[in-house]
Amino acid sequence: MTDDTGGHSMRRSTARVWFVLVFPFLLLAAAAGGGQTVYSAGWYFNKGISHACYWKGAVRVELAGDGAHSAGAQSIFVSGSTVYTAGYYNDGTREIPCYWTGAVKTDLAGAGKGNGRATSITVVGSTIYTAGYSSDGSKETPCFWTGTTRTDLPVATGGGGEALSISVVGSVVYAAGYSASPQGKAPCFWTGTKQTELARNTQVPGNGAANAIFVANGKVYAAGYVADVNKDTPCYWVDGKRTDLADKAKGPESFNGYATGLFVSKGAVYVAGYTQKTVVKDSDPVYAACYWMGTKKVELAGDGKHKGSAYGIFVSGSAVYAAGFSSNGTREIPCYWLGAKRTDLKGSTDDDAEVDSIFVK
After folding, report:
1. Strand 286-293 vs strand 296-299: parallel, antiparallel, or unpaired?
2. Over the stretch 22-42, which tens digit does the pLDDT of each residue have?
3. Quick one: 280 exposed, middle or buried, by C-beta within 10 A (0-12, 13-18, 19+)?
4. Average pLDDT for residues 148-153, to the nearest whole number?
5. For residue 132, is it within any domain?
6. What is the CATH number of the domain that holds 195?
7. How far apart are CA 237 and CA 208, in angstroms?
8. What is the pTM of this model?
9. Which residue in 22, 25, 275, 335 is deepest, having the highest Cβ count within 10 Å?
């Protein structure tokens, strides 16, 4: 099964990358309660190409690619007064992983002439860490960058993979993602370059991915999904032990969904994502944005008729922020939620836009 919700989705998978020093990354910016600011990162389509950007409050800041081809921002982090975003841009021949410090772009080394993306970013002291993947043209290799120095991460022999989220504690780098092989796509995380596979379903195809990682109190938390032959199930893992997220009383269709963002506060696990809302024969299902506190699901407001997704989550005190998009049936509108209340952001006038990450400061 796939995680595609249709439209112009920029994501290669349901990754909503997180990282940790004290807090993970993604942002959305708008004045929030308690004098805080919401920062968000994402993209919008205009004249046939996507444009990378972030929002500080309701103000959109453009992030330069090559000026002629698509670009996207997939993760955001704020340190002091400096905003860091990670993503990619297309130079007309391939996608190049990069990060922006403010609006200044820095390219990241890939493995060859294939595509690459930076999917997650965090900053520790003066060091910038990003996670992502690069390709030699035949397969994708998960990796992280310390500054601009790339470290490739091991995968199954002959396989590929992607690192979708990063967390740094002390000098130890943690990354989450998946490792692909002929036997399927396995959710995993890496501690440095040591890979730990996460529990998934044993039925073929048995695919899965860890889309977010958070390290707190000596424990490694990850969130993502696992698949069997019938459905994709959102879940999270704590030190490898998996907890599935779904309402079994509503039937098997309610299992279809994805966990894309993760935050841990005072021992409580918060997960952002989306779940299947309707089943339409011979048509794409409609997905609804939500988050879970533990295993309790909170639905996030859309227009009540069309799809939506939450990709990032951030907790500040008792306030829960999530970010993603809500469709009005014509286009996807970038937004964030404070609790269940939605705030729309400036996107495109005639095409799709999304927020892929949120950070509150």
Report:
1. antiparallel
2. 333 333 333 445 579 999 999
3. exposed
4. 97
5. yes
6. 2.120.10.70
7. 12
8. 0.89
9. 25
